[in-house]
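User: Please predict structures.

Assistant: First:
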Amino acid sequence: MHQALLVPEVILKIFAHVKQIKDPLYTSTPLYRQCLAALATTCKTFYEPAMDFLWADMNSLLPPLGCVTRLHPMIYPSAKKFWSRDIEPLSELERSQFLRHSGRVRSLYVSSDDDIHLLYFLPFDISVFPNLLSLSWVVVSSRHLHFFLSPTLRNCYIAIVQPELVQNSIGTRCAALEDLDIVTMGTMARAPHLSEAVRSCKALKRLQCPPLDSAAWKHLSTIPTLLDLSIHQESFSPSPPPKLDTHNLSFVTFLNVTTLRFCYAPIADIIAVMQHSEFPSLKEFEFITHRLPGAELLPVLRALSQCKACHTLENIAISDDDPEVEEPPGNSFSVVRELLCFTQLRSLRLFIHCSINLDNDLLLEVVSSWPQLRTLSLYDTRHLSPKVTFRGLFAALRRCPQLHALNIELDLVNIDIDPKAESFQHTSLITLGVHDCPAADDEAIARIIFAMLPNVRFASTWSRISQHHESLQASSNLQDGGAVTDTSEEA
């Protein structure tokens, strides 16, 4: 054996590479697992590191149960469904066989509790996988969750919250828990045990969960490590969650939270939380909902502008996925102007069913207020006649030299600029998306873009214009090539 293979760091690097091997088609056992198993039996030097990689990621309880002599022939070569239904729990003597490699497991996915009754030999306060780092619990009941709550656990996904979660005391048993993702599958909303479970966690960095009560919000504001907070109410929930008790909301500061998301959460809750909170480090805000008329969106934006994030917020994304929402005729809401106070904005994406009323003057005001802007997408689903012309577009681009993605309604009928009379070029813009608008002269538009936006890639809605643009590029390449050839011949 080469001396390099005796260096632990070299062995770990090699085995990590082996684990990345992709499987060929129709392989029952992943190829990387076959390779690691072969390496483990090669020599004593390879055994421990190979077994650590082999057992690191488990998608079920079958492999550790297969280490039990009595169960092995029932599981291999292929375990039948409900194979363990009438099987007696493991005995005290079989305990060491089951736990033989469980300390090597770092990531575990549990999608069924059919076999968990075999673990009844274990005391309540013992973790089956003592070094587990990541757990995905996709089981209806959390009654047996305590078997898998390791003190080393860092990431946890729980599919359905049950009252047993409080009894299992996830935050107490997993003091180092950093990432918690809880969903309720539409069965529960702001249940007391959900709030208690969240309040038991003291070291979270990221949390995604259904709407919370005021006690949980207050607790989260005291966690200095919390960076990413997402409130997600399932869109298919049969009934809305109980209203947030705003009388018990105290003014709190989420000192280090940089990302705040609300998905289908009650708008009244969002406004109340932001009105009673400060987010001095906030960089990203995302809001997704079903129905978002302008009259409801404006209070949300005003509350956002008042939560001490005007000089830190960099990314805003707001979308409404209900195509049936319609504003009353004549309604006009200053949605974009409510965001002008965020001076460090780099990305703004609005996909909403209320009139944005974007014109040349407003576009120029927008880009002048956000000198760091990289991405701007303003999608007005009402499909009103576009008011931004090419002259207004290029006036705005002059103020925003770093913009690389733009998606707006653009007037392609009234061409008010002559590219031959303009010397301006914007080389940073890569993506230009224009919604399905009629065009007066596809070739003229292609020439404008070719001359002034040389690096733009076209979206699918530009199919006819892009054909002319490709012809212009091809002609330009031929001319450049010809010039080079002539020079070489003269030389």
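Second:
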Amino acid sequence: MSTPGLKNPGAAVRGVGAAALAVEGVVLLLALLPLAKLGDGGNTAAIWTCVALAVVCFVLCGLLKRAWAWWAGLAVQVALLVGGALHWALLALGIVFGLTWLYVLYVRSSVYANKPD
């Protein structure tokens, strides 16, 4: 008889975190064109912020085995919220993905809390 639950909870949680970061990275890259077209040339800093944060998101996808990478993912969300000072769209993305990342951290903590020894 098999035991219920995840066979490898760590891998499952890392998959959820990596998926969230990958989607965030893609959305940040998709935001580049509207920022470039709708701006009056003053969105250069917002555009480069999107590029930098997207690269960080993609790099963190592969680093989630390390505990610090989860907190670095939270730092990305904070940086996106602070980027709202450059353009309101970054603030909106920061709110959406910040809440998403908080949920991912909640799922991670609940999975590890129920992990059998």
